[in-house]
Specification:
Helix content: 55-70%
Number of domains: 3
Shape: globular
Strand content: under 5%
Radius of gyration: 44 Å
Order of helices and strands: HHHHHEEHHHHHHHHHH
Oligomer: single chain
Distance between the termini: 116 Å
CATH superfamily of the largest domain: Rhodopsin 7-helix transmembrane proteins
Largest sheet: 2 strands, antiparallel
Number of strands: 2
Number of helices: 15
Length: 457
């Protein structure tokens, strides 16, 4: 394995991390992932770059068209695919990082609530600009094998149609991020100083502050709490912005210096003259003259770290966008989808007696909601109410009708009073009909039932 393939395998590992993040965003509830379209689009953009380094692992690359000319996108399909994914991914990452910095700036500094208008505008801008930029680069400059097994942008017009616009958006995102950080620092310092001023003034005078001072202090504290809350929620995105912009700056600096060193001019001819003379003297054997190319091209010790740093972008996404709650969310999803259905809670007695025919009529083994009612055949019949039972004057039915209804709707049952029951009629109290108030109400009182009269006698 060559040194340039190290970056390919690192990107392969990072690809699985990105797949984990995107699947978590897609299938887990937001309470586990805290997903946001800015994070999702940033991960997709980084995935395009990782695909560019994964393509050579599955397809053999032919870097040389002839002895002195490398293959480009017109002569090799693998080169065209890897170069297109790399350029589109680079464009997308920078644009979405810039949009994240803009979003954070608007929320913290200007208290703007980002609604659906910003959502659709960001989506159109975040994917439209990279598509336009890729089209322009492929039409005007193209890609070819420059180092390693992944195609990169060519020298002609690369600064005008790729590196220049890319660095402009990266610089814009960096400026917005620094302004936001400066504003946060200002708010924090002001909030702390206002607290100290309020405490000192109250302690010296012994009187509460004035109304205007209280309002200004309350406003500063509200701003401090609001900014603190937003920073607490968005610090991961801010860290991603700083890291990726630093990577883009390092990547662009190396490639622009390589482009400037490869321009055909008098300085290049003067630098490469010893190497040309060595080739002539050794009959074209390049291995005998490798020690003379150090001043013409950038050494491998500089180019290889650029590719490795670029491959680490997916790890930064996992570090700042990933949460331990995602793992808990997948465990919870697995339990709800697979384990709970198989091991649903059922009483141990139901399992123990489910195959016993003696418990076939058990309420646990029956789906009939009325199966747990007592059996009517085992119940003793109730006595039919006597015809002479006292009837309420508000009732419209006779005692015979009650008996008839009971017979029609079901078997009558005998009410057996328990031995210690207090529901039997009690004997009358000490007072009798001679009592004044009882005598007065004698005429209006209804006749006592027959069985109560016997008990009283």
């Amino acid at each position: 394995m060559s040194n340039s393939e190290i970056a390919n395998w690192i990107n392969l590992a990072g690809f699985f991390f990105l797949v984990f993040l995107l699947l978590s965003y897609a299938f887990l509830p937001p309470k586990w992932t805290h997903r946001h379209y800015l994070s999702v689009c940033t991960c997709i953009s980084v995935m395009f770059m990782t695909l560019a380094f994964m393509i050579p692992l599955g397809s053999p690359t032919h870097q040389c068209y002839n002895d002195i000319t490398p293959n480009d996108m017109r002569s090799d399909g693998t080169c065209a695919a890897s170069g297109a994914f790399l350029l589109f991914g680079g464009w997308s990452v920078v644009i979405w990082v810039c949009l994240r910095a803009l979003s954070l700036h608007l929320q913290i500094c200007w208290e703007v609530t980002l609604g659906n208008k910003f959502l659709w505008s960001f989506l159109a801008f975040g994917w439209g600009v990279p598509a336009i930029g890729l089209t322009i680069v492929l039409c005007l400059t193209g890609v070819s094998y420059r180092f390693g097994n992944v195609c990169h942008v060519n020298h002609p017009l690369a600064l005008q149609d790729f590196w220049g616009p890319l660095l402009v958006f990266a610089a814009l995102g960096m400026v917005l991020q620094f302004i936001t950080m400066a504003y946060c620092i200002h708010v924090f310092i002001k909030g702390i100083s206002d607290d100290k001023t309020t405490t000192n003034s109250t302690g010296r005078t012994g009187r509460p502050p004035t109304a205007s001072g209280s309002i200004s202090t309350a406003t500063a504290r509200q701003t401090y709490r609001r900014v603190k809350q937003v920073v607490k929620l968005q610090w991961r995105g801010a860290a991603v912005v700083l890291v990726i912009i630093a990577e883009v700056a390092f990547f662009a600096a190396v490639f622009v210096s390589m482009d400037n060193g490869s321009q055909v001019n008098a300085k290049l001819f003067e630098t490469s003259l010893p190497w040309l003379l060595c080739l002539i003297g050794n009959g074209g054997d390049k291995n005998q003259c490798l020690h003379l190319v150090g001043g013409i091209v950038r050494p491998q010790s500089i180019v290889l770290p650029v590719l490795i740093v670029l491959a680490l972008t997916s790890f930064w996404c996992l570090l700042f966008f990933g949460r331990w709650s995602m793992v808990h969310g997948w465990v919870d999803l697995f339990k709800r989808k697979f384990l709970r259905r198989k091991h649903e809670f059922v009483s141990a007695d139901a399992h123990r007696f489910s195959g016993d025919p003696r418990y076939g009529s058990s309420p646990l083994a029956s789906t009939d909601p009325y199966s747990n009612l007592p059996n009517k055949g085992n119940m003793a019949p109730l006595n039919v109410l006597p015809a002479s039972t006292w009837q309420s004057p508000l009732s419209t039915k006779s005692p015979d009708s009650y008996t008839k209804d009971q017979i029609e709707h079901g078997q009558t049952r005998v009410y057996v009073s328990p031995a210690d029951s207090y529901s039997v009629p009690r004997p009358p109290s000490a007072f009798g009909p001679s009592t004044d108030w009882a005598e007065k109400g004698k005429e209006s009182s209804p006749p006592l039932p027959r069985h109560i009269g016997k008990a009283a006698e």
